[in-house]
Write a structure and sequence with these properties.
Helix content: over 70%
Number of strands: 0
Largest sheet: none
Shape: rod-shaped
C-alpha cells in the first residue's frame, strides 16, 4: 500500500471509530494484528457484551505477507537461474556460429572489415536472438495467462485464502513484461561480447585456412 493510500485509509478508519463511538458503541483499542491473533487478548478481558473492532484490509492480510515474500524470493531465484541457463545456451550458440564461420570471418577481415565491425556483427546477432526469443516468450506467456484466466479455474480453499480469489487469475503487468524483454535481451547481448571479441581477434590468414 502506498503512503498516500495508507494515510487516507487511516483517516477513514479514525472517522469510523469516532462515528461509532458517538453513537454509543463500545470499541476495542486499535490493534493492527489480524482478527485471529486477538482471540487470546479478548478472552482474558473481564467485560461482557460486544465491542466493535475496526481494521483495514492490510491489517487483516498482514499474516500472508511473509508467504508473499517467500514467493517473491523464489520467483526471483528461478528467474536468475533461468537467465544463467539462457545465457550459457546463447554463448554456446555463438561459439558454434563462430567456429562454423571461421573462414567467413577470415575472408571478411581479409577484404578490409575492421575488428570493431566483426564485434558489432556478432553483438547484433546476439541482440536479435535475445530480442526475438524473449518477445516470443512474452507473447506466449500472455496468451497462456489469458487462457488460464478465461478458463475460470476454481482454486482450492487454501489457495483462495492466500490469493484472495475464488478463481485463478493471471494478469501479467506491462511493466514486468517490458523489464523482462529489456533485461534478458541486454544480458544476452553482454554475454555475446566474449565470443565476439574472440572472433575479432582471429588473424585473416589463420581463419581462412581453418578446416572443420
Amino acid at each position: 500500500m502506498s503512503r498516500h493510500r495508507r494515510i487516507r485509509t487511516e483517516k477513514v478508519q479514525e472517522q469510523l471509530r469516532k462515528s461509532f463511538a458517538a453513537e454509543g458503541f463500545e470499541l476495542m483499542d486499535n490493534d493492527p494484528r489480524p482478527f485471529w491473533a486477538k482471540f487470546d487478548g479478548v478472552n482474558r478481558e473481564s467485560w461482557t457484551g460486544q465491542k466493535l473492532d475496526i481494521t483495514n484490509w492490510e491489517d487483516e492480510t498482514s499474516f500472508v505477507q511473509w508467504f508473499v515474500t517467500i514467493l517473491t524470493v523464489a520467483a526471483t531465484t528461478v528467474i536468475f537461474v533461468l537467465t544463467i541457463i539462457i545465457g550459457v545456451g546463447i554463448m554456446n550458440v555463438m561459439w558454434i556460429s563462430i567456429r562454423e564461420r571461421t573462414r567467413e570471418i577470415g575472408t571478411l577481415r581479409a577484404v578490409g572489415m575492421q575488428r570493431r565491425s566483426v564485434i558489432a556483427m556478432f553483438l547484433t546477432e546476439g541482440f536479435l536472438l535475445g530480442l526475438l526469443g524473449t518477445s516470443a516468450g512474452v507473447v506466449l506467456g500472455v496468451a497462456i495467462s489469458a487462457l488460464l484466466t478465461g478458463a475460470h479455474v476454481v482454486l482450492p480453499k487454501g489457495a483462495q485464502l492466500v490469493l484472495m480469489s475464488e478463481q485463478l487469475v493471471v494478469t501479467p503487468t506491462a511493466g514486468w513484461l517490458v523489464f523482462a524483454v529489456l533485461f534478458i535481451t541486454g544480458t544476452i547481448t553482454l554475454i555475446s561480447l566474449i565470443p565476439s571479441f574472440l572472433a575479432a581477434r582471429l588473424k585473416p590468414v589463420s581463419a581462412m585456412s581453418h578446416v572443420g
